[in-house]
NADH:ubiquinone oxidoreductase subunit NDUFA12
Amino acid sequence: MAQTPLRRLLQVFTWWNGTTIGTSWTTYLRGEEVGTDQYGNRYFRTKNGKKDPALGYDRRWVIYKDQAEATMIPPGWYRWMHHLTDLLPEQQGYVVREWEKPHQPNLTGTAGAHRPTGSIFRPDPEAGISAGYDAWTPGEASPQ
């Protein structure tokens, strides 16, 4: 797929929209792809599993399909990325457990964010406040 001039410019200046030119170049020269997850993220390690002399283990990285969102790494790949195992998810025999929920992005700051009972950001802010609650006001004597 040919890149547009805008996409090339974004590759120079942004890291959150995919890979930068530097990451692409390093991946091409020093990396080997080891797999892809269900979200389309691609996982890499240093060629032939070569260990970094400073770290003592191979370097591993992910190139996200869309926006760089660390929560988009599934549990099996998380284990591999953080050197908890050297086995890829398909080699681990990893299966999704019935209690695991599908990925949901962080909704903080959006209309879908959690609004606890009594929050002024809820559509019904008074719904969760009990009738027996008296708010404290600075300067008033506290009830005994």
In short: The chain has four helices and three strands. The mean pLDDT is 80. The beta strands are 31-36, 42-46, 60-63.
